[in-house]
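Dear support,

Our group has been running a series of protein-ligand predictions, and this particular one with (S)-3-Hydroxyhexanoyl-CoA is the one our PI (initials K.S.) wants archived with full inputs and outputs. We had some confusion internally about which version of the output was final, so please treat the block below as the authoritative record. The input we submitted was:
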Amino acid sequence: MNVADNSVEGRGELVLIRFEDGVAVIEVNNPPVNALSEGVPEGIARAIGTADTDASVRAIVLMGAGKTFVAGADIKQLEEMAWGRGAGAPNMHDLLKRIEDCSKPVIMAIHGTALGGGMELAMAGHYRVAVKHAQLGQPEVNLGIIPGAEGTQRLPRLAGVEKAIEMCVSGKAVKADDALAAGIIDAIVQGDLRSEAAAFARRVAADGLPHRRTRELTVHVKAHGTLQEALATGRELARKAKRNLIAPLKAIDAIEAAASLPFEEGCARERQLFQECVESQQCRALIHAFFAERGVAKISGIGKETAVAPIERIAIVGAGTMGGGIAMTCANAGIPVLLKESRQDALDAGMAAIRRNYDASVKRGRFTPDAVAERVARIHPQLDYAGFETADLVIEAVFENMETKKQVFSELTARTKADCILASNTSTLDIDEIASVTRHPENVVGLHFFSPANVMRLLEIVRGRATKKETLATALALAKRLSKVGVVVKNGPAFVGNRMMFPYMYEAQFLVEEGATPQQVDRALAQFGMAMGIFEVDDMAGIDVAWRVRRELGHFSEPGSRKPLVADKLCEMGRYGQKTGKGWYLYGEDRKPAPDPEVLRLIRESARAAGIAQREFTDEEIVERSLYGLINEGARILEEGGAQRAADIDVIYINGYGFPAWRGGPMFYADTVGLRRIYDRVCQFERELGQRWKPAPLLQRLATEGKSFREYDAEQNI
Ligand code: 3H9
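Confirmed final output from the archive:
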């Protein structure tokens, strides 16, 4: 075998080429994900040129070194573009043409993920082979852009208009079998990818098989009668599934161009649409969200050298809604779970709920019955602490009450091994006080899952005064294993997410006391992009739950503080929200909220009795009053060190509270409005509405200095 490593460009070996028995194997070598950073497209072009002119080469294989094929354009580079800086997008057009026009057959060999520009690169090959676990996708919409390297032109030629729309609009990757069935790849290889792909390449060359150029294929419509029907269905789907997003509709425009224009012109149209997207506020916000999500795991004082404890077995105390959901999360990740309850009926009810949830997943096609059986078998229901001494981590998920939690922790500390991590799923209570009853407070941490725990991605990891860094590092690693986004927050009343939620929730309630209706407030918030209005959220979480937390945290105990009038009354009337069929709204069989005249009457009567003047509100005022209080609280938390970065707060709100990712999270959104404007409005609200609107000192400082939360984060240099 003749091996000749060929370093390309001056930045190390970004692209390698080896010659193996008549086949040139080109490897993209740009860890961690082989992104198409500067130098990579040029390197690939050069390697293709080398192989094309080498008479001993009969065929070419292009693959990724390390754990994946190419995972797309370098998003750092795209971020620069989005902010109007940098050199622009890589010129992929010339490279893809060079590959397609190569005189030797080019076989793309895919493992890991071929995403975005990576999938586009793959589609320019004459043939594609992949390992079974490979995934291919056009996730650009998740970054607020459309495929910009001919993906919208090539995919409908390979897989048809509908599949192209489905993939470009959803942004979801498909597995190798699906890609094979759709005509995106030509074969799935079973053994070693490199040697199988090389053998495939030799066969293509030996048999003189045609160079299949994607650009020469005809765009086809599969399930619909006409192109226009397929496009109309796609646009409807995009409007529903990707509410408020610009890019999915633009991707469909580009696919339409593929079907109605010659290839080169379609590509030009795609580039134009790509450019429009990359310059949008949505793109900036979504790229911010992408890096924010990856940034949360970077914690000062914790590095690669910090020991992470192996978690082989987890025990959970409490089989209620939260405990059951957490048990499912662990079982889904392949971790055996002991699930303890104190009463048989509660344990039975908990296990029944788990089975019901899994059955629903089978019905939706998410899991096979066998996969569910395996998962349920990992959950061991029990009434005592048997086996807890073998657990590496225990998660307490009992009733939200300090005395009950302390009781559980004092039992746990006696029944678990010394290095067992003891976690509380509390959403508001003081972790240090809970830890005070244990022998090893350094092993105590908060793991605040969000309901439903098996669905919601957010995990607040609460760092107590004594929590050691190894415990945090283990919690972060576990979050990743459970497919959650773990965000480390400091112990403090209601931590970060819920603490910011209170001013938001109360202000919405004051708005209805002053003349707005719950529906109007919720509609304004939904139009802003929130997944749900705040009154719907209160009904879903339970009005009684908020009532208990208010008391636990001593809200409105300060003299002169304004207390919402209606929430307590609803609670006293037994209107707890969805679970009782009545709360701020009425709920029928379909669980959809309907306005209730009784609640409106109660609101108006309470306001009249308290002498609150009534007026009309615009949607803009509603959004400002609801969200600026939340942002102001976020600034206060940030300054107190409750969260490490403003971007961490964004990740919390996007993943746990339905804040629209395309607005980048509340703190990023505040930057886009301008902190000066937010600060001025907060000051105005303070004058008009009182003390609760006192501006956070950090907000004041940044506004005065003309800075943003992003700049504040950059200065922290974590
Ligand atoms: C595109 O391709 C546009 C085109 O149409 C053409 C334009 C002309 N660039 O997620 P992880 C970093 S748009 C730069 O923790 P995993 C990431 O920040 C792009 N960096 O790993 C992190 O860095 P750090 C379309 C990237 O194993 C590290 O890699 N492609 C990129 O859980 C590890 O990331 C996508 O949208 C990138 N493209 O998941 C794919 N990707 O360690 C986006 C990752 O410093 N990427 N990084 O924090 C992903 O979905 C996941 O990263 C992936 C791996 C599934 C690949």
